[in-house]
Amino acid sequence: MNTSVAVGLSALIILAALVDGFANDWGFFLFLARKTVELIDWVEFWR
Hints:
Largest sheet: none
Oligomer: single chain
Protein name: Glyceraldehyde-3-phosphate dehydrogenase
């Protein structure tokens, strides 16, 4: 991955976060955060 691709992907993620923040009151990113915590707990169980 070169620098321009990394900058483009990070800009896209930041833009998606801002749109979600204004449109859905951070609902999607809160959902992703909760699911990520569940995944970490599940993977930690197998360790």
